[in-house]
Design goal:
single chain; alpha/beta; Rossmann fold; three-stranded antiparallel beta sheet; 9 helices; globular; binds 2'-deoxycytidine-5'-monophosphate
């Protein structure tokens, strides 16, 4: 079984996808972390982010890998563990810029399909149900209001000891939604056959149960 979970920034995709993967003994693949890793490398190496060819060539000459550890998934850039450095607002901002480049998306598509080739994955992102795994057995589109997503991101960043204010997070999320939805290549869009799950006001475990129920119903319909 392959499960695709898409949705805007802060809708809870990675938390939910990880828990669903655990419950169904599937492999979790966080594709946003791959765009974040590239954005981190652009900043780290001083590559001009507006130069699509330079960004694409940095990706071509490097290796991104996702590894499972007992404490969760880690992200490696050329073997270096950069997991703790890819969730800052600056990296988020740069990630949505590099993710708008066709030359970058084409490479990511190949990498992500190769990762899912053996099946039994829960993959989360923006274009998984529409482009990366259009034949996924179950497609979920998770949403939540901008206000709720900003509040969740604030709590996450505060836990990491980062100091940010709610209004600037709200603006940053709205801006990322706009950029992710309006880009020409593989924009953030609900696949026609995706189940819409609005997580506003729901606890994580309630969302997980809802997704598991959808998976179960799909399995029953298919058998
Ligand atoms: O899910 P996230 O916030 O970690 O994603 C970081 C950025 O990467 C986000 O701006 C959208 C982009 N992204 C994408 O364009 N396609 C994906 N499959 C995953 C993420």
């Amino acid at each position: 079984m392959n499960i695709a979970i898409d949705g805007p920034a802060g809708a809870g995709k990675s938390t939910v996808a990880q828990l669903v993967a655990q419950r169904l003994s599937l492999v979790y693949i966080d594709t946003g972390a791959m765009y974040r890793a590239l954005a981190w490398a652009v900043l780290h190496h001083g590559v001009p982010v507006e130069d699509e060819a330079a960004v694409a060539s940095l990706l071509r000459d490097s290796a991104i890998s996702l590894k499972r550890t007992p404490s969760g998934q880690i992200v490696l850039w050329n073997g270096e563990d950069i997991t703790s450095q890819i969730r800052t607002p600056k990296v988020s901002h740069h990630a949505s810029i590099v993710a708008s480049y066709p030359q970058v998306r084409e490479q990511m598509l190949q990498l992500q399909r190769a990762m899912a080739a053996e099946g039994n994955v829960v993959m989360d992102g923006r274009d998984i149900g529409t482009h990366v795994l259009p034949d996924a057995d179950v497609k979920i589109f998770l949403t939540a209001s901008v206000e709720e997503r900003a509040r969740r991101r604030l709590a996450e960043l505060q836990q990491q000891g980062l100091d940010v204010d709610l209004e600037s997070l709200r603006q940053e999320i709205a801006e990322r939604d706009r950029r992710d939805s309006e880009r020409t290549v593989a924009p953030l869009r609900r696949a026609e056959d995706a189940h819409l799950v609005d997580t506003t006001g729901l606890e994580v475990h309630e969302v997980v149960e809802r997704v598991l129920q959808i998976c179960k119903q799909t399995g029953e319909q298919g058998s």
